[in-house]
Amino acid sequence: MLSLAIISWGAFAQNDYSSMNHSEKDQGKMDMKDNSSASASITVKHSKSASAVIDRYLKLKKALVEDNSQKAASESKNLFDAFAKFNLSAKSNSEQKELSEIIEDASEHAEHISENSGNLDHQREHFETLSNDIRDLIVIAGSDRTLYQMYCPMYNNGDGGMWLSSSIEVKNPFYGSKMMKCGSVQQEFTIK
Rounded to whole angstroms, how far apart are CA atoms 43 and 30? Predict the structure, then answer.
């Protein structure tokens, strides 16, 4: 039964992402309430087009793990700048449209995080939505490295929250030093 669920998840994850509506509050957010410890794998194309975005996102995540609101604001400003420099020209028309929507929404969250230095809880709320946008961007644009989708079932009053990591070691950006190890690997993004 678990194998069937994982196969179904993999099939869903490889669907055409152009049907997602990123203008809605949840940006096509997948249901992350499954608290099973099994992880699935999704293969994305090898691409360096999102490298700067991924680098900046991971630095922002690290600042939140460290409970450093000022550093999170600074890194989020750098991420905002990386979105502005993202090159869409090599993508198909449908990918350009979808990526534009994702980048527009993600930029708003990055800007909001950068403007809220000193309010770590508020930054973390926007980081959760930003993480969904980054995941969607990677599915379409590809990645230059293996990434892990992590999940904390306790975040957001038990609704859970997802983030991306370059390591399978859990370092929770939603709770930082309060509950550093709360979470598990939910999915692995491998490069083809």
Answer: 17
Is residue 159 assigned to a domain?
yes
Total residues found in the chain within this entry: 192
Tell me, what DSSP letter sits at residue 185? E
pLDDT digits (tens, 9 = 90+) for 59-70: 999 999 999 999
Number of domains in the chain: 1
∠ Cα 134 44 4 (to 5°): 100
User: What's the farthest any 2 CA atoms get from each other in the chain?
Assistant: 46
User: Is residue 8 domain-resident?
Assistant: no
Using the CB atoms, write b or e for 115-126: b if 16+ within 10 Å.
Answer: ebbeebeebbbb
pTM of the model: 0.80
